[in-house]
Amino acid sequence: MAREPLRLAFVGCGGIATAAAWLVRLNPGIRIAACMSPVRDEAEAFARRFRVPRAYTDLAGLLADTDVQAWYLASPHDAHAPQLREAIRSRIPVLCEKPLATTLDDGIDVCHLARDAGVKVAVNYQYRYDRGCRALVEAARAGELGEVLFGICRIPWHREAPYFEGTWRASRERSGGGTLITQGSHALDILLAASGGRPARAWGSVARRRFTGIEVEDLAMGCVETDTGCLLSVTSTAAATPERAVAIEVYGSRATAVWTGPSRPRLRVYGARVRAPPVHGRPRHVQHVPGVHPVARSLEAFRRWVVLGEEPLTNAQSTLPVLAAVTSIYAAAEAGRRLDVPTFPSSGR
Length: 349
Known about the structure:
The chain is of the alpha/beta class. It folds into 2 domains: 6-126, 3-Layer(aba) Sandwich (Rossmann fold); 128-281 and 316-340, 2-Layer Sandwich (Dihydrodipicolinate Reductase, domain 2), CATH 3.30.360.10. It contains 10 helices and 14 strands. It has helices at 15-24, 40-50, 59-63, 77-89, 104-117, 131-141, 172-175, 179-195, 294-308, 320-335; strands spanning 6-11, 30-36, 55-56, 70-73, 94-96, 121-123, 148-156, 199-207, 219-226, 231-237, 246-252, 256-261, 266-270, 339-340. The strands form 2 sheets. Strands 13-12-11-7-10-9-8-14 form an 8-stranded mixed β-sheet, with helices on one face. A 6-stranded parallel β-sheet has the order 3-2-1-4-5-6, with helices on both faces. Helix 6 crosses helix 8 (179-195) and helix 8 crosses helix 10. The longest helix is centred in the middle third of the chain and has 17 residues, at 179-195. The protein is globular and about 55 Å long. Residues 278-286 have low confidence and may be disordered.
């Protein structure tokens, strides 16, 4: 007998949710059972577009919907922690868009609440489900690059004024930051995983080079030193013209690995032979799931966690290292000096 699809509610109906909804339509194991946005027109338009049977304008209505089994949380960043707490209190599993929270304290609190309540919470750091990124991390962790000495990631993206103007993204309080937390954290997350260490110290600088009327940065440069002595550098911008590919470079004592993407992703390794995991089958160290895009694989991995109990790559606690690193870079930039990264629970990844 075929298994019933997971009945998923979309909390937030904006651009990210729309992109995810198209991928959900390709997965017979997931059905969008409801959606919620505080903007009625947005919720109703999303429901019509994706044939969602019920649209809500507040969490109270959604929480009362007993047909919903899990949430995909795609609301503004400042809503993540409070909405996650509501879901955890109601014992609802959640796949949350990054970041888990805008502060490390809130992120740790959500992880503790989820653990104590036995509620599954994952974060959509979908680069972990890119085949090349996974092969890079596996090769580094397996010692195939030798000792990891340092890493560099660059996110030279381009955004136009409407991306910020009149939206929550322009507010430091609502977004938690600009390009670093929104775009750069994906690549920094992969660097941290490849390093095998925990972020220990951070420093950096942020600026508004193109969009001067916003509260957040459109350019960030930061460094993180891990407890293993590895140095990681991140440069992230929304002001590059034209936009170029993301690059993640890991330099080992024996070999160097360079990933570029996310469009037309490619992994190149200099000094060693490393193959990307197969499309089907289980790679050496990490879970593999099928899907046409890393976000599709992240959604499917979350479904398998809820339905089958298979642990995903992106449980909430495993994303605390990158949240700690990003928030520490911001704090160091404001203080104008290198800072120790606050302690946080072990990621377990």
